[in-house]
Design a protein that fits this description.
This protein is mainly β and 129 residues long. It has one helix spanning 75-78; strands at residues 4-11, 18-25, 28-29, 34-36, 48-49, 59-66, 82-90, 93-99, 111-113. Bound molecules: zinc ion.
Length: 129
């Protein structure tokens, strides 16, 4: 499976250490590219996910990482555990990577939402008779 990797500082929920970890995610052009926070996501290529760039270049999806803080004494506890992270892309820029605790749909590399800026829940308007 082809995916991209973004390197970010993540607070591991298992050992409670801040680790710099590579998070595998499937957004933009999938070509095993390495990104870091603040990088612009590439959308040109033969294999893209989603197939077309979302409006505004904004999207959120699940990525996966292993805590690799070797010096931590709980390393053996958390190392084999694949953990989920939420990757936020805004205006094509990888803005944020944070630990994600769910809910999960069960779909791998699930796309959480097109992150629409300022989108709010609209309450139903009162209807006039
Ligand atoms: Zn850890």
């Amino acid at each position: 499976m082809t995916y991209n990797t973004v390197y970010a500082d993540i607070h591991c929920p298992f050992c409670n250490e801040k680790v710099t970890s590579g998070v595998g995610f499937r957004l933009g052009c999938l070509e095993n590219k390495h990104y870091k926070l603040g990088d612009k996501l590439k959308w040109e290529g033969s294999l893209c996910r989603p197939e077309t760039r979302p409006a505004g270049g904004s999207i959120q999806a699940i990525g996966y990482f292993n805590c690799d803080y070797v010096k931590c004494k709980t390393w053996s506890d958390c190392f084999p555990e694949v953990q989920a992270a939420l990757v936020t892309v805004k205006n094509d820029v990888i803005e944020k990577v944070e630990v994600y605790k769910g809910p999960f749909s069960g779909e791998q590399f699930e796309i959480i939402k097109p992150a629409k800026g300022g989108a709010k829940k609209t309450t139903s308007k009162p209807k006039k008779k």
